[in-house]
Automatic annotation (TrEMBL):
Keyword Nucleotide-binding: no
Chain ranges of the HTH cro/C1-type domain: 15-69
Protein name: Transcriptional regulator
CDD domains hit by this protein: cupin_XRE_C, HTH_XRE
One Pfam entry name: Cupin_2
InterPro entries reported in the protein's UniProt record: Cro/C1-type_HTH, Cupin_2, Lambda_DNA-bd_dom_sf, RmlC-like_jellyroll, RmlC_Cupin_sf, TransReg_Diox_bact_type
SMART domains on file: HTH_XRE
Length: 190
């Protein structure tokens, strides 16, 4: 796992750079992302470690991947992310986790995630921008995928794909850990 201070510094640097490149003032980005101006200032000054939801809102508002916001080495033409460099962004109360493995801008943000949910754990996601698609491949256990007002059971060895422009979530209602790989594709900014 990368040094948390390194990730915080990368987020601060990349958020400010992307905000400036896109011509957003602090107030404009705050309004666009639904994040307070004060929170953005604290993030850009590396004085806080924001929630996953906050990072997602900022990435969506900037039309960037979470990986790009957290990238602490953008200089290489080929980027290899070793297991210890992957960034865990969600930790469940019983030991589950959601780890961003990699991401690119192609032409919009494209992210690869590894998730581990212990029995009884779940993660609820807000709606993403229209056109966002997620693909989930369950490697072990049985995932309960919430999409809108419906639950879908996704057994090990199965893949689910869906439009993620409405609230959705992932739960482990079973007795064994669930491991899954997820790809998130966000459309490029308008």
């Amino acid at each position: 796992m990368p040094d948390p201070d390194l990730v915080t510094q990368a987020l601060a640097r990349n958020l400010k750079r992307l905000r400036t490149e896109r011509g957003h003032t602090l107030d404009a980005l705050a309004a666009r992302a639904g994040v307070s101006r004060g929170m953005i200032v604290q993030i850009e000054q590396a004085r806080t470690n924001p929630s996953v939801a906050t990072v997602v809102r900022l990435a969506d508002a900037l039309g960037a991947s979470i990986a790009r916001l957290l990238d602490y080495d953008e200089s290489a033409a080929v980027r290899i992310v070793t297991a210890d460099q992957a960034v865990p962004l969600w930790t469940g109360p019983d030991g589950g986790s959601g780890t961003l493995l990699s991401g690119v801008e192609a032409p919009g943000p494209l992210e690869l995630w590894a998730w581990h949910l212990e029995p009884g754990e779940g993660y609820a996601s807000e709606a993403h921008p229209a056109g966002t698609v997620e693909i989930v491949r369950v490697e072990s256990g049985e995932l309960t995928l919430s999409h809108g007002d419906r639950d879908h059971v996704v057994p090990a060895g199965s893949t689910a794909s869906f439009e993620a422009s409405q609230a959705h979530g992932y739960r482990n209602d079973g007795a064994v850990p669930v491991r899954l790989t997820m790809v998130v594709s966000v459309p490029p900014p308008r």
